[in-house]
Specification:
It is a single chain. The chain is mainly α and about 140 residues long. The protein has one domain. Helix content is about 70%, strand content about 0%. α2 crosses α3. The N and C termini lie far apart (about 35 Å).
């Protein structure tokens, strides 16, 4: 195996598809992190708060296990905050986040999700090209 291969990450990726499919099949809900968080803050008065908390807790479980999380951010706080706001704006304007459109939307063959995914992936490629190769 490649030294870059990380088994827990690979297993998590493999579980995303069936988890998104089950969430849609059993509850009629899209597995988008942006929507989960948006409906938690503040909590909505419905019967799915526990479900959203459980999904987010599962995502945060790696932090609880004490396993080191290595993350290297090579920018200052201003570009980081600006990027966060742009992602939040895009999620709101696009009626869904990258995981909602890219995993659940594409699996449902949603035209809107295909356009959204093509848009944010193109923006990501262009951003990397400009910031890493053309400066």
């Amino acid at each position: 195996m490649s030294p870059d291969f990380h088994l827990p990450s690979a297993l998590g990726g493999v579980l995303l598809g069936p988890s998104a499919a089950l969430l849609m099949a059993l509850f009629g809900r899209v597995a988008g992190i942006g929507g989960l968080v948006a409906r938690l803050l503040p909590p909505r008065a419905d019967d799915t708060v526990a479900e959203r908390v459980a999904i987010l807790a599962g995502l945060a479980a790696r932090l609880v296990t004490g396993a080191p999380v290595t993350l290297r951010i090579e920018t200052g706080p201003v570009p980081l905050v600006l990027a966060g706001h742009l992602v939040g704006f895009g999620s709101t304007w696009g009626s869904g986040c990258t995981s909602g459109h890219g995993i659940s939307g594409l699996a449902r063959l949603s035209r809107r999700s295909a356009i959204a995914t093509a848009t944010f992936m193109s923006a990501a490629v262009l951003t990397v090209l400009v910031l890493r190769h053309l400066r």
